[in-house]
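User: Sequence recovery, please. Input:
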């Protein structure tokens, strides 16, 4: 499954959840398939989607879904330890693993040699889901968080336009939705 198709499938199953989306092409792809004021499109800060998602989950009661990439998660593996120890029941971390840094030139990551689900398990996550095909989030959305979802996707970026909002607009629109 291509990442953009996985993102489309995920967005079709979400209702009122808050979504923090990884930098670069994943944010552009989410914006192209389903824009929403409940989506925060990261335009910088590689490796921080999981940490921003955690902070948001701790600050309010709505369910938070962070869409992260393997390269970004590998850049901030410590976030898994913090997420586990903070234990937010309303947090889902979805790892879209294409084994490369898709937004910076598709350089290979170590995700092909390291099992990121097993790392989440070793940290202590109790609810871990793995997908290599259809992303049916029915059970994921019912599970008590923190939840770790490992979705293998094909390398490659969709041909989607850049997000036509300034960073401040993205932030203000998202914050307005939180009220």
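Assistant: Recovered sequence (179 residues):
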């Amino acid at each position: 499954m291509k990442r953009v198709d996985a993102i489309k499938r995920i967005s079709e199953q979400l209702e009122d959840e808050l979504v923090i989306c990884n930098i670069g092409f994943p944010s552009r792809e989410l914006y192209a398939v389903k824009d929403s004021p409940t989506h925060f499109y990261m335009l910088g800060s590689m490796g921080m989607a999981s940490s921003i998602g955690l902070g948001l989950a701790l600050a309010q009661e709505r369910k938070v879904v962070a869409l992260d990439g393997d390269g970004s998660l590998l850049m901030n593996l410590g976030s898994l330890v913090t997420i586990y120890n903070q234990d937010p029941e309303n947090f889902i971390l979805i790892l879209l693993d294409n084994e490369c840094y898709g937004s910076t030139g598709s350089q290979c990551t170590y995700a092909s040699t390291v099992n990121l689900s097993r790392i989440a398990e070793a940290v202590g996550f109790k609810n871990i889901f793995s997908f290599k095909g259809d992303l049916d989030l029915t059970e994921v959305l019912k599970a008590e968080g923190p939840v770790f979802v490992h979705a293998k996707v094909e390398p490659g970026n969709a041909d989607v336009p850049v997000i036509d909002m300034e960073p401040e607009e993205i932030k203000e629109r998202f914050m307005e939705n939180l009220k």
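Residues 3-178 form a domain with the Rossmann fold fold (CATH 3.40.50.970).
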